[in-house]
Amino acid sequence: MEARPSGRQHILGRLRSSNGFLFGAAIGSGLTARAAEQGGADFLLVLSAGKFRMAGLPSLTCMLPIGDSNEIVTRIGRSEILGRVSAPVFFGFCVLNPRLEIRSRLREIQRWGFAGIANFPTVTSVEGDFREMLDAAGIGFEREVELIRAAKEEGLTTLVYVSNAEEARRMKAAGADIYCASLGFTTGTKTGVPTRLNLFQAIPLIDQILAPVRNTGSLLLVEGGPIVGSAEAVQVCEACDIHGYIGGSTVDRLPLQTAVRATAAGFKSLSASVHATTPGGRGAHRDRWPWGVIGRSPSIRQVIHQIERVAPTRLPVLILGENGTGKELVARALHGASSRNSRDMIILNCAAIPRDLLESELFGYEPGAFTGATRRRVGKFEDAHGSTLFLDEIGDLEPALQAKLLRVLEDGRFERIGSNVLQYTDARIVCATNRNIREMVSARLFREDLYYRLCAIEIEIPPLRDRAGDIPLLIEHFLNEIRSELNPNIDAIDGDAMQLLLNHQWPGNVRELRHVLERAAVLCSGSIVGNNDLALRGSSDFDRFQPAPASTRTAKSPLTEKEWILNALEETHYHRTKAAALLGLSRKTLYNKMLRYGML
Amino acid sequence: MAGLSPETVDLLGCLPIANVNAQLVDYLASQEQRLHTVECACVFAADPFYDPGQLIDELGAANISGIANLPSLGILGGRFAEVMSASGFDFQRELQCLEFAKRNGLRASAFIWNEQQGTASLQARVDQLIVHPGGFLRQATAPRAAAAATIALVKRLKDRAAGETPVLLYRHPALYNELSEAAALADGTIVNRG
């Protein structure tokens, strides 16, 4: 019996020595308890609400007559958690049954190995007539105070949920150890509840609730309401100068929903692609191909099939596809899968070079061929001898050059500019365009004979919107690259973001997807990319992420003030109190401004 | 809950200290004289763990011929009722269960606490309304006012029902005498015999 008070002191000491931010996980299953502890939770709180959340119900069902709350917590705690975790475990104790012998139940709780108790479900989450009825029936807040007093006498650590200063004051008189300002049930997602509070309003409310127990050496925490993630929790705790946060829905329901949705979306989209392909075909389950081609949709498999068939030949190839679909990647694949791959592929973008220069780039020139041609220069055709010449944007080639290209394609012969000597090249010609080359032929903008020479082998790359099943694979691939290049903390994207990306039309195709993910990885403050981190063309967020035109940025514009605040935050390593002092602002004014500029 | 006042027991029925539907099903299953038909079993009709079909199947095995929504979320008010309702737990959910029971051949009785609930129940074509005189606090602190409000509610609902649906009164023990006038107005009374 002597050891009990020191046990309580030991637990409080352990929690006080927690490294910085104190985090408690309010859970209702062994699975979530162990996962939370592995993630670093400082203590666990077993609540009936946690069990109901695991059944897909909102936390507030813990107030319904669908089970004996204390029996539920006892069963979960004893059969799934105690003895399986090393973090202190608190028992969510319900005092609503007037027949319950509080003292004897507390002794059992202690004997089973719980470190402490909390008043939960609690009447502090109830307002109005119903709350008054509970108080009048003798099973209201006063009975919770009695619980805390008794628990302390029994040597258990006590954690109390309070929703106003008066409750905090009464719990202080009872000798509670840890105070949690309750902002009500957590908002957000379909099973969240509406709240009248936003984060900014929550801060003064927390200050007000905990005012009577400040500077008493007690641990001060917050939970619920508008706090739906770690970033908000840390910000609120810092702004209120309290020790930490208790997460319930934010620890199990919200992340589980997100992870399961994302996983299911991944399975579903891959499954759709697999079913659409020929069953049992070679490589039916492959999704990553040599040369960096990624996808298992029927259309991308058709591209792979064409590459494999065509690569060993020396036939010219015309690659068609919208911007960003990966035409150069396919050209590289053709080269890489050919016997010419010991030499580098030569690339020339026909649209990027002025017409006068393009001819000399392609065919080379002799000294004196034109002003400034002081010495011989070998062209791309000669460079690509024995290799592959990739002519991108072939639709932009001038008619005169089209004729010369046709000749090279027919017999490999050409002349350097300023020379009559025939040169021979064994270059394999691969061309690409995003233009409608057939229409250009009809409009006499592209030579028909050249088109027929080129289109003997035509590879058409599907736009990304027509192979949405490949999007999860591409995302995974790009996130792997982004992790090593931009942000090592990025783990994945959440289900809502995945859904958004799957539904987007991708006018810029795979290149746009990569850019969207890169930008999100830079902006994302945590490890999971969410909807808010994505800026897609055609969405209002896209404009939000674009730099403002220089002319709109004046000395007194909000953007300048935002930068001023950002600079101060960076200078003070994001210590808000120091940043406020540096800027000559109060902490609250700084907080206001950060809120205004979307920095919170 | 022997020894507790009826009004406290009313309140306790709404609280997370028992699984009231499971207890009811177990109780009915344990009765030896199962040949007798139980005219009305009071259930928590918003139980998220009981699909109405499953609940009615289990009750049907015990010769139940009717159900009523008690305990009920109808007793709640204010912000707490608002957040409960936003999560799908409210009187309307109970009414859906009663409608389902009626479609499946059971007699559906709706306990109601206010005119809005009474009107919704009439629209749902329940078989009878049972007017509850109000919460614990009203009964304890202002019995006359509670009785007067109950009389007015019975009158209005009888007008709305227009003789098509019986409007009964739950003659709550805490207000038994005060409710005599309301009882006279109602089409019948339900009494609590403990």
Supply the key terms:
heterodimer; A: about 600 residues; alpha/beta; 8-stranded parallel β-barrel; 25 helices; about 45% helix; elongated; B: about 190 residues; 6-stranded parallel β-sheet; 9 helices; globular
What does this structure look like?
- The complex is a heterodimer of chains A (600) and B (194).
- By secondary structure, chain A is of the alpha/beta class.
- In chain A, the strands form 5 sheets. An 8-stranded parallel barrel of chain A has the order 1-2-4-5-6-7-8-9, surrounded by 9 helices. In chain A, strands 11-14-17-10-18 form a 5-stranded parallel beta sheet.
- In chain A, helix 7 packs parallel to helix 8 (165-174) and helix 9 (199-210) packs across helix 10 (230-240).
- Chain A is elongated, with a radius of gyration of 34 Å.
- Chain B has helices spanning 6-12, 20-30, 52-60, 78-86, 91-103, 115-123, 136-141, 143-161, 180-185, and strands spanning 17-19, 41-43, 66-69, 107-112, 128-131, 167-171, 188-191.
- Chain B has a 6-stranded parallel beta sheet.
- Chain B is α/β, with parallel strands linked by helices.
- In chain B, helix 6 packs parallel to helix 8 (143-161).
- The radius of gyration of chain B is 16 Å and the shape is globular.
- Chain B contains 9 helices and 7 strands.
- Classes of the chains: A alpha/beta (600), B alpha/beta (194).
- Chains A and B meet through strand 3 and helix 6 of A and helix 1, strand 1, helix 4 and helix 7 of B.
